[in-house]
Design goal:
The chain is of the alpha+beta class. It folds into 3 domains: 6-112; 145-216, Helix Hairpins, CATH 1.10.287.130; 226-372, Heat Shock Protein 90 (2-Layer Sandwich), CATH 3.30.565.10. It has 10 helices and 7 strands. It has helices at residues 6-38, 41-55, 59-69, 74-111, 126-180, 186-216, 230-240, 242-245, 266-282, 341-351, and strands at residues 226-229, 251-255, 261-264, 289-297, 300-307, 355-360, 365-372. The strands form 2 sheets. The chain has a 5-stranded mixed β-sheet. β4 (289-297) and β5 form a beta hairpin. α1 (6-38) packs antiparallel against α4 (74-111) and α2 (41-55) packs across α3. 17% of the residues are buried.
Length: 376
């Protein structure tokens, strides 16, 4: 910061030096030209004549008044002249300072404007112009990101509303069939009930996603930390996903050393790992193995989820952690969620003072979660 103000301080210092030099010089000029010069001879005669003509005084009376007012008070007149001069100089210096404040104020007003105008200030205020332009750039990016997130949320709400109609129509249709044909064969009735139940579960899932969209912006993450047996948690999670893996003959392999523990909120970290694994299952090839590995590294626990599938474009590797972002909007709604899974995972990991990142190549995609092993 001291270096930032160096130009401005130099300019102000030079102005002070110039004032310090100019003030006594101007004082000498005032004394020599005005006090000792102008206030003599012609000035004295004009003052004397003025008193004579105006107040009917004699020459000696008028001359005596002149001496009392001017000649005997040269030092006071000199002091008064210097005082007025210093006031003018101070006003000029103050105007220069207020000019800087006005420039900064105008620059701050530009922060609120939606324009491509760059903020420019005096050369000695270049550092402030650079900072204001940086703030302007950050605010504009945040505004764009917020609008994009809002647009994605609105699009998802529309998609979900449309998707809800399909299972709801099926549920109503099959229930009508069951209601209108009470003597329906048991086998056919069981088939219709199974389809209705499946569509009802799908409807419940879509409604939950609506709640997820609303709740994401309102919730505050509060952690209830405890010691977690990580290999047990990961294996239990893999077993729970068995029904999702079987239809496409996918497998999950967990590689974590026995006794590996970390300190964190078990429920919320389970949600992180569930979201990542669900994403890996949705975007991996059939007949492939999803590898979950965990190792201890320098006071941290590093958990990786590796799957073989279509690579994620490089420019989207950071975007996938934004809320309401779905990698593929054309993907079936049965596999694509509300675009909150990875965003919520990042929020939870960050609350644990950890990091989450993604890497993707033609061979595989890897999600890496790094968490402190202790609560130190």
């Amino acid at each position: 910061m001291n270096d930032d103000f160096s130009k401005l301080k130099r300019k102000i210092f030079l102005q002070v030096v110039l004032i310090a030099i100019a003030a006594p010089l101007l004082g000498v000029i005032i004394q020599r030209l005005l006090i000792d010069g102008l206030f003599q001879a012609s000035f004295a005669e004009s003052i004397v004549q003025f008193f004579q003509n105006t107040f009917n005084m004699s020459y000696y009376e008028a001359l005596n008044i002149y001496k009392q007012l001017f000649r005997n008070n040269k030092s006071w007149w000199l002091a008064g002249g210097l005082f007025l001069l210093l006031l003018l100089i101070f006003y000029f210096a103050l105007s220069r300072m207020t000019k800087y404040f006005n420039e900064v104020s105008s620059g701050m007003e530009l922060l609120l404007e939606e324009s491509n105008r760059e903020i420019t200030l005096s050369p000695e205020m270049d550092f402030m112009a650079a900072k204001l332009n940086k703030v302007k750039s950050i605010l504009e990016k945040r505004e764009r990101d917020a609008k994009e997130a809002e647009q994605r949320k609105n699009d998802l709400v529309v998609y979900l509303a449309h998707d809800i109609k399909t299972p709801l129509t099926s549920v109503i249709g099959y229930l009508n069939l069951l209601d209108e044909a009470p003597d329906m064969p048991q086998e056919q009735k069981a088939k219709y009930i199974g389809i209705t139940l499946e569509k009802a579960y799908r409807l419940e899932q879509l409604i939950n996603e609506f709640f997820e969209i609303t709740r994401f912006n309102l919730q505050t993450i509060v952690l209830n930390k405890e010691k977690i047996n990580l290999p047990f948690m990961l294996q239990q999670m893999a077993d729970e996903f068995y029904p999702m893996l079987t239809p496409q003959e996918k497998q999950v392999a967990v590689n974590a050393p026995d006794g590996l523990t970390l300190w964190g909120d078990a429920d919320k970290l389970a949600r992180v790992f569930n979201n990542i694994l669900k994403n890996a299952i949705a975007y991996s090839y059939e007949n492939s193995v999803i590898d979950i590995s965990a190792v201890q590294q320098e006071g941290n626990v590093v958990i990786t989820f590796t799957n073989r599938g279509d690579p994620i474009p490089l420019q989207k590797l950071d975007t996938i952690f934004e809320k309401f972002y779905r990698l593929d909007y054309s993907r079936s709604s049965n596999t694509g969620g509300a675009g909150l899974g990875l965003a919520i995972a990042k929020e939870i990991v960050t609350a644990h003072r950890g990091t989450i990142k993604a890497q993707s190549t033609r061979e595989h995609t890897v999600f890496t979660v790094t968490l402190p092993s202790s609560d130190a």
